[in-house]
Structures are given as structure tokens and as C-alpha cells.
Amino acid sequence: GDSVTQMEGPVTLSEEAFLTINCTYTATGYPSLFWYVQYPGEGLQLLLKATKADDKGSNKGFEATYRKETTSFHLEKGSVQVSDSAVYFCALSEEGSTNAGKSTFGDGTTLTVKP
Amino acid sequence: DTGVSQDPRHKITKRGQNVTFRCDPISEHNRLYWYRQTLGQGPEFLTYFQNEAQLEKSRLLSDRFSAERPKGSFSTLEIQRTEQGDSAMYLCASIPIRYNEQFFGPGTRLTVL
After folding, report:
1. How far apart are CA A112 and CA A9, in angstroms?
2. Do residue B43 and residue A93 have CB atoms under 8 angstroms apart?
3. Rounded to the nearest 5°, which phi and psi values hold at B101?
4. Are the beta carbons of B102 and A46 separated by less than 8 Å?
5. CA within 13 Å, CB half, B86
6. Model confidence over B16-72: pLDDT tens digits?
7. What is the DSSP secondary structure assignment for residue A50, as one 8-state letter?
8. Rounded to whole angstroms, what are the CA distances from B97 to A100, B25, B84?
9. Which chain A residue's Cα is nearest to B47?
10. Which of A111, A106, A110 is nearest to A5 (CA)?
11. pLDDT of residue A2
């Protein structure tokens, strides 16, 4: 079955530091890949997505590139802010008769940014 | 705010009681998903509806769990005879047809004492 593996956390950075959160996946077909962010006590918000190989998703300074050859979708940001402190989830979704768009998530990586 | 609402946001119950949660998806979204998220883990798929039809159920969904989506609009998730292991955040998500970006509600946090 499908699976997503994220780098273990928590990750603690100083403000303006460079962020990388690793994500690799296994899937039977050609999934779409997502990063979601979850703030304390809230649901998941889509941060960015990529639907095919070599696509780059970007939003709010975050970027991730769909690498089919390495089955990876690493999240990066050049300069983090305190407000980026949250839990980040990598996920995949496959469209097909058996999967029907449901998502498979990694276990999440907690990011804390200190001033 | 994604436009998906869930009610209640928090529920505390005693073991053995029944609880029911409600999800109101975005009105034009015909697919609706329920997930369960326990502390320190990512959401796990429970069940999925396309319009009013429940098309898939995870093996995580024991016979104490039941979900409905009458008329293809809002959905309810009921847990009978709750157990402490049912304590989790229950998330609802919806998407329109031929689309795979899920819009999540804020979740219902269940605590079973």
C-alpha cells in the first residue's frame, strides 16, 4: 500500500535559518503530493502541492519539488519566521477507482522557530 | 477557514457512552472523508462518501463506528460504547469531483475518560 515517511522531529531553528524537512513516499501509481500545516488546536491547511514529476509547489516562501526518481518531496524555506512554528505533514493522494482521492499522511514534523 | 465546519469542536465523554459528530462540507463538494488523528501521528483514513454513498471503509472503522451522509450533504460519525482508545481528533475533509486537494475542517477532539 501507499506510505509516506517524514524526517523525525522535532526541529528547532533560529529565526531566519534555512529549513529542510525530508519526505519520501511509496505509491503504486502516480500520486499527487502535498504539504499540509497544522497549527495548535486547528485542522490541516494545505501549504503547497505538486501533481506530476518535476513540478515545484510553492507558497509563503515554502517550496517542494516532486522528484519521481528519488520518490521524494522535501519541504524547504530559505528564512523561517517564528510564525512558521507548527506541525508539517507530507501527504500523497492517488486518483483511481480503488483510492478515490483519499490521502495518506506522514507522521508530521514539529517545527519550532525561536526568535 | 476552509469552509468545512465540524461540530462539536471538543467532546468529553465517559467510557461506554455513545457520541456523534457532524461535518458540513463545502456545498458543491461531492466527496467527503473522515480521518482520525492521534497525538504525534498523521491523520489516518476512516471512511469516504461520494454524494450519499459510502464507498470505502478502513479496517480501522470497527463495528462500533458508523457514518452516514443523508442526501449527500452533511455527514455524521457515530461511535457507540466509546473506549479510551477512541480518544483522538476526528477530521473531516471534502473535495469536488475530479479534484484531489482536500479541504479540512477544524476537527472534533474526543476525550474518553
Report:
1. 10
2. no
3. -85, 120
4. yes
5. 27
6. 999 999 999 998 888 999 999 998 889 999 999 999 999 888 988 889 999 999 988
7. E
8. 10, 13, 36
9. A102
10. A106
11. 87
